[in-house]
Specification:
Largest sheet: 5 strands, antiparallel
Helix content: 25-40%
Low-confidence stretches: none
Oligomer: single chain
Number of strands: 12
Strand order of the largest sheet: 10-1-2-11-12
Strand content: 25-35%
Length: about 240
């Protein structure tokens, strides 16, 4: 399992993902679920993936091959030359359907789940910063002012804090804290989500990833944040009025 969250603000995007794919007693596997591309001063695109690893890896591999092919055939369309972020989301959705169809028969015969979801965020020159959630079937929805964040994977543990504090006007630094607290809540409640974490920040109109960080299990900043949040929750609980 996994947990990924992407927050779209007026000021930019905050993206955070874990790296765990299996959490059995003696079989813990880790794979990066954040994939980023940049064309200097033209665009930046970040994908976060969750679900069946063979499907999501197949999607990323095909997208990479399209980019490589476009070096030989400049007319070939890719996520790095598409004319809008909406078209980028369409390309990811189309690629998802292709991978699904290729493996569907064999995976159904084995009784293997092949659900997968992808968060697509970014901006191209002349366009606006946008965030999409692409479903298994290849269709997608876009983040709006009413729904400024998306989660995929084990989302239920980390959703309450985001619901309470995130609006489009939230500052990037505050949203980064909220994303990390959301992840910390998930890490504490679900063994199938695990560190290290991948964090990326994309400021509006920067056309680049302005911050990229790998947060290891012994990261002192994340440790202080986790401890401070635990203490704050404990204090708030004991300060609740006795109304029942």
């Amino acid at each position: 399992m996994t947990y990924c969250v992407a927050i779209k603000l007026d000021a930019g995007l905050v993206l955070l993902s874990d790296t765990r794919t299996n959490a059995g007693m003696d079989n813990i596997s880790r794979y990066g679920k954040m994939h980023a591309w940049e064309v200097p001063e033209e665009r930046a695109v970040v994908l976060l993936t969750a679900g069946n690893l063979s499907i999501t890896q197949g999607v990323i591999t095909r997208l990479e091959k399209q980019i490589e092919y476009s070096k030989l055939e400049p007319e070939a369309e890719t996520i790095l030359n598409a004319d809008s972020m909406f078209r980028v989301a369409q390309i990811v959705g189309e690629t998802m359907r292709q991978v699904q169809e290729r493996h569907r028969e064999g995976m159904e015969a084995q009784g293997t789940a092949f659900d997968a979801t992808v968060l697509v965020g970014g901006q191209r020159k002349g366009g606006s910063l946008r965030l999409f959630l692409v479903y298994t079937a290849g269709n997608f929805i876009e983040a709006t002012a009413d729904t400024p964040f998306f989660q995929i994977g084990e989302h239920k543990y980390g959703k309450p804090i985001l619901d309470r504090v995130i609006t489009p006007k939230t500052q990037l630094e505050k949203a980064k804290l909220a994303a990390c607290v959301s992840m910390d809540s998930t890490l504490r409640s679900n063994l199938s989500v695990g560190m290290p974490l991948d964090l990326a920040i994309m400021e509006t109109d920067s056309l680049k990833i302005t911050e990229r960080r790998r947060i290891e299990p012994d990261d002192p900043d994340f440790g202080r944040l986790s401890e401070a949040w635990s203490q704050a929750l404990n204090s708030a609980f004991h300060d609740l009025p006795h109304v029942f």
